[in-house]
Structure formats: structure tokens, C-alpha cells
Design goal:
single chain; Four Helix Bundle (Hemerythrin (Met), subunit A); rod-shaped
């Protein structure tokens, strides 16, 4: 086609087809980008919700492990304290691993408190049999303090997540309604 002032109907329709095709491809690409962004946001929300559910399950476990360490310390039995400390250290270490998988909680104070308590429990267990007749309660007391701190931090983190989840639900209701 030579560029002239006289356009035939076919030329006009051809040009319109090109314009419509370009707009169609642009709209399709825009929709794909929106879908990808929505998928990423949905995935993040799902991961956060799964972590929140894990924390809800962890809290009673943290409390029962704390109670087991306290009971063992009251018994003054090195063997019972050893078993309680190993159980606490192993289970809490796996919880810490789960928390560190979320970038938002990787350096959170609950993760640090649980890690410190698990480390202290493991460290004490490894030195529990160094003395012939140790004062088991005195040896366990600093670890119990760290365990109590971790338990409190876990409860606070769950309460914070609950408040943020409730706020998101209210925000979504207002946006939808």
C-alpha cells in the first residue's frame, strides 16, 4: 500500500484490526499481571494464616513443655530434668525452624526468645551430670526464666496476629460492603 490520501474501506478496516489487536494484547497482558500480583498476595496471606494456625497449636505445647520442666525441677531428679530439658529443647527448636521460615517472623522477638530458651535447655542438659550432687533446682532456675519469657512472647505474638487478622477482616468487610 502506497501512502496516499485516498484510503479504501479495506485499508480502514485493516488499520482498525491492528488497533483492536494491539489493545486486546495490552488488555490481556494487563490482566495477566493483575492475576500474578493477586496470586502472590494470596500466597502471602495463606502462608501467614498457616503460620498463625501453627502458632495457635504451638502455644499450648509451649505451655505444657514449660510445665514439664517446672515439674521435673520440683522433683529434684536429674533424670527427670534431663528428659524434660531434652524434650523442650527438641520440640521448641523445631518450632523455631518453622517460625524462621516466615521472613516477617525470622527476627521477631518470639523467635529469638524461643531459640534462646531451647539453647539454654540444651546447654543445661549437657552440663547436668558434670557435678556429683548438684542443686538441680538452682541449675534449672535460669533456664526456667528463659522458658517463661519465651512462653510469654509466644502468647503476645499470637495475640498480635489475632488482632491484625481481625483488623484485616474488618477492613475487607468495609471494602466489600
Amino acid at each position: 500500500m502506497i501512502w496516499t490520501a485516498e484510503w479504501t474501506r479495506g485499508d480502514v478496516f485493516g488499520l482498525l484490526q491492528v488497533v483492536v489487536a494491539i489493545l486486546g494484547f495490552g488488555l490481556a497482558i494487563w490482566q495477566l499481571v493483575r492475576t500474578a500480583n493477586a496470586t502472590v498476595a494470596s500466597n502471602r496471606a495463606l502462608q501467614r494464616r498457616l503460620l498463625y494456625n501453627d502458632l495457635l497449636v504451638m502455644l499450648p505445647d509451649v505451655h505444657s513443655l514449660e510445665d514439664a520442666v517446672d515439674k521435673a525441677a520440683r522433683s529434684k531428679s536429674r533424670d527427670e530434668v534431663s528428659v524434660a530439658l531434652v524434650t523442650y529443647s527438641r520440640r521448641v527448636a523445631s518450632m523455631v525452624g518453622a517460625l524462621k521460615s516466615d521472613p516477617a517472623l525470622k527476627d521477631h522477638k518470639v523467635t529469638k526468645a524461643l531459640a534462646a530458651a531451647a539453647k539454654a535447655a540444651g546447654d543445661l542438659k549437657s552440663t547436668l551430670y558434670d557435678e556429683a550432687e548438684p542443686d538441680v533446682q538452682a541449675m534449672v532456675r535460669p533456664v526456667q526464666t528463659k522458658i517463661q519469657t519465651a512462653s510469654r512472647e509466644t502468647g503476645e505474638a499470637i495475640a498480635t496476629l489475632q488482632r491484625s487478622a481481625d483488623a484485616e477482616k474488618q477492613k475487607k468487610k468495609r471494602a466489600d460492603g
